[in-house]
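Researcher: I've got a protein sequence and the SMILES for adenosine-5'-triphosphate. Could you write out the 3D structure of the bound complex as structure tokens? I'd like something to compare against our soaking experiments later this week.
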Amino acid sequence: MSVAAAYLTKLNPEQRRAVEHGAASTEAGCGPLLVIAGAGSGKTNTLAHRVAHLIVGGADPRRIMLLTFSRRAAAEMTRRVERIAAEALGAKAGVMTDALTWAGTFHGIGARILRDHAGEIGLDPGFTIHDREDSADLVNLCRHELGFSKTETRFPTKGTCLAIYSRAVNAEMALEEVLRAAFPWCMAWTAELRALFAAYVEAKQRHNVLDYDDLLLYWAQMVAEPALAAELSGRFDHILVDEYQDTNRLQSSILIALKPAGRGLTVVGDDAQSIYAFRAATVRNILDFPGQFDPPAEIVTLDRNYRSTQPILAAANAVIGEAAERFTKNLWTERTSGEPPGLVTVRDEIDQARYVADRILENRETGTALKAQAVLFRTSHHSGPLEVELVRRNIPFVKFGGLKFLDAAHVKDMLALLRFVQNPRDRVAGFRVLQLIPGVGGSSAARLIDQMTGVRDPFGALAEAAAPPRSGDDWPAFVDLALALRSGRAGWPAEFGAARLWYEPHLERMHEDASVRRADLLQLEQIAGGYPSRERFLTELTLDPPDATSDQAGMPLLDEDYLILSTIHSAKGQEWKSVFVLNAVDGCIPSDLGAGTSSEIEEERRLLYVAMTRAKDDLHLMVPQRFFTHQQSSTGDRHVYAQRTRFIPPSVLKNFQLTTWPIAAQQANAGRAAAQPVKVDIAQRMRGMWR
Ligand SMILES: Nc1ncnc2c1ncn2[C@@H]1O[C@H](COP(=O)(O)OP(=O)(O)OP(=O)(O)O)[C@@H](O)[C@H]1O
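Model: Sure. Here is the predicted complex with adenosine-5'-triphosphate in place.
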């Protein structure tokens, strides 16, 4: 066997088929390939091998586009490709994988392509990108301008308006259809919403900003033009897409426009793990993929699971087996020994936290590092009581998902400043920054921005503008900073440092906890240092914000051991030896928010499946019986009783080991409640005090 093929021997026959698909083809590129890969079946591994195999076989890495779900996944994939390719290419592998510059998310790659081709599509290449919150602010501005916020019956909120707009764009659906299907209570506003969206689109163009959806929409429009599609398509021999189940219609349109015959196209996905329908992702993309080509795409199915023990897999298969519609087969494994997963009933969330902390420490005693253990939950705030318990017991942890680092006011202030300097037409950013200066309110900010609009040298106009009354020395200091940053003389990331130094006194003035916030900014500065330019920093950070601060920053915890806390969405693609799933009760999984239509319920079922299939050896689902409700003061004690999640009906229950904890206390409680008569009625005594 040749050295080049040695790494192939580690793959099973199906994985190998996927990796070698088209390798023998003599023409440039090969036929389309769909890999349907179950959880833990080595999907990521297979895709990485395929990319490495292409490179080893002579493909030009600069002509490979690799689309993943997050930037983190792209970086991890590139690392794996290098390791695999090194077996055949030795030290040269690094050079080759460094040239894999088109690995990233759809949105990130889209932003680069649009900037590269801005001239051809009538776009100003200096555009900035609005995140969801900025987009909602701009929608709100348009809503006010059109007078809709003053209507007698309540017009949909800015967030709802944006969600409707986004769904129509991403699902390629007519407005009426979107409203009927997902927002029926807004149907009376169809005409107004249409006018609002028209105004929103015009505002974005005036401000030279694109929102997330535009990155796909402009890209799709661009490749709908045959000449541009051919030019772009000609730059890539291979396009590979991971997590295809979580792409939307617009994304699949882009792929098909780029590679109409499917040559060089590979997509990988698992319909059972589709968890982003709420963002208009559609599992139909996978199902319809093969038939879009003539001849149709080759299909390879990976159903051998390498991750979990048989009892864990049996329980996960049973949960997904209840799904209304399913296409992939049950997974199987050769790891036949192991305990069934635990279904642990506890009294409330506090006991849940205690139980989980106890087990985690026990596991550590028996040799399982904290890092090999994870606690997963449906929504970020579900981990609150556990976080308290972990801090109390000194158990270090890192939390992923829902940690809105970029939403913190001070982080947004800094980014708005940099964005404003990058693109002075970005009104949302300008409005925010100018109001940081003492004495500058909404109307003077608007006046200043108006003065900068439509002129050839916006920052010259800013310098010449009359200082706002009461702004004192702060005004010239700001103008100096803006001019210095705009000139780019200091270079990146030194500019960031200058911006931070300007901002710090304002931070101290505005926030009591300035020192904590300052630490965040220092961390952001470290992140900034990882990017070659201000533009790349702003683009990438807006598109794929860090999940947790430690996700991107200097990794101070790298050498230490810490437990992973994560939302299920953020746990996608990962695995741990031991996994605890919090709140396996109705109202949490399925979430109250997602328990409307039957398709939302099905998505919640798949979420539980994703959570369960993260575990290698050890899985616990927690069922707290009592919940304190959140809509009350911190000292309130109102609570509700919860039921085991409907995704584990009696027929599925046999796959679990059922326990109640703490055993003695529960029995004692139950006994007392049933047998003991009331000895003293304190409530009555209290009332008596006032009679
Ligand atoms: N051929 C193989 N032989 C042995 N182990 C393998 C093989 N392929 C994959 N694995 C192991 O199986 C585990 C799961 O692989 P990977 O993370 O690539 O799965 P995945 O399909 O991407 O999972 P998911 O879709 O659930 O996120 C990893 O620990 C990987 O090392």
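Model: The pocket of adenosine-5'-triphosphate is lined by residues 10-12, 15, 37, 39-45, 270, 273, 306-307, 573, 575, 613 (CB under 6 Å). The chain has four domains: 6-111+216-302, 128-207, 310-400+559-630+638-661, 405-543.
Researcher: Great, I'll pass this along to the crystallography team.
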